[in-house]
Design brief:
Radius of gyration of chain B: 19 Å
Low-confidence stretches of chain B: none
Number of helices of chain B: 14
Number of strands of chain A: 2
Number of strands of chain B: 7
Mean pLDDT of chain A: 92
Distance between the termini of chain B: 38 Å
Low-confidence stretches of chain A: none
Helix content of chain A: 40-55%
Largest sheet of chain B: 4 strands, parallel
CATH class of the largest domain in chain B: Alpha Beta
CATH superfamily of the largest domain in chain A: Alpha-helical ferredoxin
Structural class of chain B: alpha/beta
Strand order of the largest sheet of chain B: 2-1-3-4
Order of helices and strands of chain B: EHHEHEHHEHHEHHHEHHEHH
Structural class of chain A: mainly alpha
CATH topology of the largest domain in chain B: Rossmann fold
CATH topology of the largest domain in chain A: Fumarate Reductase Iron-sulfur Protein, Chain B, domain 2
CATH class of the largest domain in chain A: Mainly Alpha
CATH architecture of the largest domain in chain A: Orthogonal Bundle
Oligomer: heterodimer
Shape of chain A: globular
Helix content of chain B: 40-55%
Strand order of the largest sheet of chain A: 1-2
Strand content of chain A: under 5%
Order of helices and strands of chain A: HHHHHHHHEEHH
CATH architecture of the largest domain in chain B: 3-Layer(aba) Sandwich
Distance between the termini of chain A: 41 Å
Strand content of chain B: 5-15%
Number of helices of chain A: 10
Largest sheet of chain A: 2 strands, antiparallel
Largest interface: A-B, 70 and 67 residues
Radius of gyration of chain A: 20 Å
Chain lengths: 179, 288
């Protein structure tokens, strides 16, 4: 029997992170805080501190981090990974944890679900549209004689996306809408 | 080198000036490129949500480009560039993920068996074409331009894989601008993130970050901004009006793509460079 029991501790967390990223390595962090000092999200989102996330991930206590939604505030600038003297990657830990939360059925911010829905529909996160010019004209790809875009065989593309988990994310959204 | 041209979602959807000017400049310098047929998202925006879907989308681009006979992929977006560049590195120890994405790719008759070289437009300009060639082709020096370079995080980081420029002291955009006759001194906020990735999480804060970067460029005496990434360009260029409203300040500063600066110095027609899509008031500076 363990000397101490923590009810919310995820003992399998290290393996779950490793399954997504080899470079996250929260176990190698010695909290020098170089990552947090260079973190742009830390400057504007109170409580967002990559070194703290590394420690929490190493210990396996990530429940409140996941529930708070704060992990989505990462700007993905990769400064933390680039400056870490121990060659760990807080950004990859963060990205692994957001993946883990989605895998568990927790919905990501709406914008992320919408991007997946758009990719599934047409292959891109935004569809080609009219763009405004300095003369207040609104021009499309066609007007500009740019090559057309879009998926040749959307049905097969969507079957492929299902295999790699797109529908799992969209199902979360659906479940939420039904509540 | 025969490049498969990959535009990415943002450039192909509304940031037409990036695609238009890139095509014109690459063609002008004789770069051998053609569009990758049937191209879809590079995966980058999906990576934090569904890692396996990111890997599939990035692998799909490589599989298509290889099948269509290209030797390398040319990108005009830092996000696409990093996604396609880091794929093989990230999958190195994950044969299970490779197996899964190949099961998915097989639906469309595709297969991923390793990545092609990926080249950001900055690398093509700086390494393939080179400063010397660009300098020789300049017809109209960009005199009076004091241009703040913005590299964008994904063009310089992470340091674990090869990136278009140095991760702490990039210089290539500035070197190109100087060759064109502009001034582009370094500034303390050079590496600061544009925060485009959090626009869908907290738009107001993201615009505050980008607005403040433009504001500081103005305070430091720059009269223009040079971007190479459409995400950064949206944040630091197209969104200036709304960022100004968030900050309650005027953060209007002409923002253009590096390829547009090159085109201007080559004496190219403004419309040919897609400048009509830049709504940040470049006219006065360009026609000076």
């Amino acid at each position: 029997m363990d000397t101490i029991e923590y009810s919310s501790r995820d003992k399998e967390l290290a393996n779950k992170i490793k399954a997504i990223s080899d470079e996250a390595k929260p176990e190698d962090c010695y909290t020098c805080i170089k990552c947090t000092n260079g973190c742009p999200a830390n400057k504007i989102f109170e409580g967002f501190a990559p070194h703290k996330i590394q420690v929490a991930a190493h210990m396996g206590f990530v429940e409140d981090l996941i529930e708070s939604g704060i992990l989505w505030y990462c700007m993905n600038c990769l400064t933390c990974q680039t400056r870490c003297p121990m060659k760990t990657s807080p950004v990859q830990t963060i990205s692994s944890l957001t993946n883990i939360s989605v895998n568990r059925g927790i919905a990501p911010p709406k914008a992320f679900t919408e991007m997946i829905r758009a990719v599934k529909a047409n292959g891109a996160i935004i569809q080609p549209r009219e763009a405004q010019t300095t003369d207040f004209d609104f021009l499309t790809r066609d007007d500009l004689e740019l090559p057309a875009r879009g998926i040749k065989d959307p049905v097969k593309f969507q079957e492929a996306l299902k295999i790699v988990g797109a529908d799992q994310v969209l199902e979360i959204k659906k479940a939420e809408e039904e509540i | 080198m025969k490049y498969g041209f990959f535009t990415g979602c943002t450039s192909q959807a509304d940031s037409y000036e990036n695609e238009i000017s890139s095509r014109v400049i690459l063609t002008h310098y004789g770069i051998d490129f053609q569009d990758i047929e049937d191209q879809s998202c590079c995966g980058t925006p999906i990576k934090t949500t569904k890692h396996s879907m990111w890997a599939f989308l990035a692998a799909r681009v490589h599989a298509l480009a290889k099948k269509q006979g290209y030797e390398a992929i040319a990108t005009i977006c830092n996000g696409c560039d990093l996604s396609l560049s880091e794929l093989s590195h990230e999958l190195e120890h994950h044969p299970d993920v490779v197996e899964l994405i190949n099961e998915a790719l097989a639906k469309e008759g595709l297969h991923y068996d390793g990545s092609l070289p990926v080249r950001n437009i900055l690398e093509i300009l700086y390494e393939d074409i080179g400063l010397e060639t660009i300098e020789k082709s300049v017809k109209k020096k960009l005199t009076g331009f004091v241009t703040a370079a913005h590299y964008g995080c994904h063009a310089i980081r992470p340091k674990t894989i090869k990136r278009p420029d140095n991760h702490e002291q990039p210089t290539h955009i500035q070197e190109i601008l100087e060759i064109l006759g502009a001034k582009s001194p370094v500034y303390p906020e050079l590496l600061d993130c544009c925060s485009a990735t959090t626009i869908g999480v907290d738009a107001e804060k993201a615009l505050k970050v980008s607005g403040e970067k433009v504001e500081i460029m103005k305070l430091r005496g720059y009269n223009s901004i040079a971007n190479i990434c459409p995400f950064c360009h949206k944040q630091l260029g197209a969104s200036q009006d709304v960022a100004g409203k968030v900050l309650g300040k005027d953060v209007k500063l002409p923002a253009m793509y590096l390829s547009q600066y090159i085109g201007l110095a080559l004496g190219m027609d403004e419309e040919k460079l897609g400048l009509q899509f830049n709504l940040t008031g470049w006219e006065e500076l360009v026609n000076k």
